[in-house]
Specification:
By secondary structure, this protein is of the alpha+beta class. 22% of the residues lie in helices and 19% in strands. It has a domain at 74-207. Strands 1-3-2-4-6-5 form a 6-stranded antiparallel sheet, covered by helices on one side. A two-stranded antiparallel ribbon has the order 7-8. A hairpin with an 8-residue loop joins strand 2 and strand 3 (100-103). It is elongated. It starts with 23 loop residues before the first helix and ends with a strand.
Amino acid sequence: MVDKNLPEPQAALPPLRPEPEKPKRQIGQWFLLAAAVIALAAAVVFVVLRIIDPPPSPQANNVQRNEAPGLDGVIAENMPPEQLLLGDCLRGFATPLDPQTVVTCDSSHNAQLIGSFELEGAPEAPYPGADQLLTQSEDLCKSVSLDPSAGIDSTWTYHFSRPSKATWEKGDRVVSCFLSLTDGNVRSSLLPASDDAGSPTPSPSKDNA
């Protein structure tokens, strides 16, 4: 006798399959590729903008000279040493490497640029050494002809700028010669009138201004 309450047989279910993992590695590669494309596009845009609208090139600090100085005699202030002219009279001079105050030579000053020389030496010539340049610079500066009426005495000191090893290797061959007072000021040029870039030379006189 068959029991009618038995459950009907069911078809066998297929075995469960594990869910495939997400391709994490592939996603990471796509991310890196997208970042590289964005960076490349930004670089291209940057280059194009630089070509179309280049940044302003740095300009030298050119100090303008006052062609009509006032009663103070100031022609220019904070003048870079490389912009000085032969015969320039300088107020408040301390060292040849400082920016200078250029004044008329008939106004109070304590130094003057009396000479400038170009040393011999090819661009590839080796640096001759500090001692040799010092001796050569001193000889050149002391060879400058001065106004006999200027009254040069022991109160005056020679100063000169000369190439360093670093500037020599960049092609610098310039020696600049200065004479400065140890104390006090003068109101005249040290150079003969034909060599003076400033105003006519009055009779020499010292002051303590």
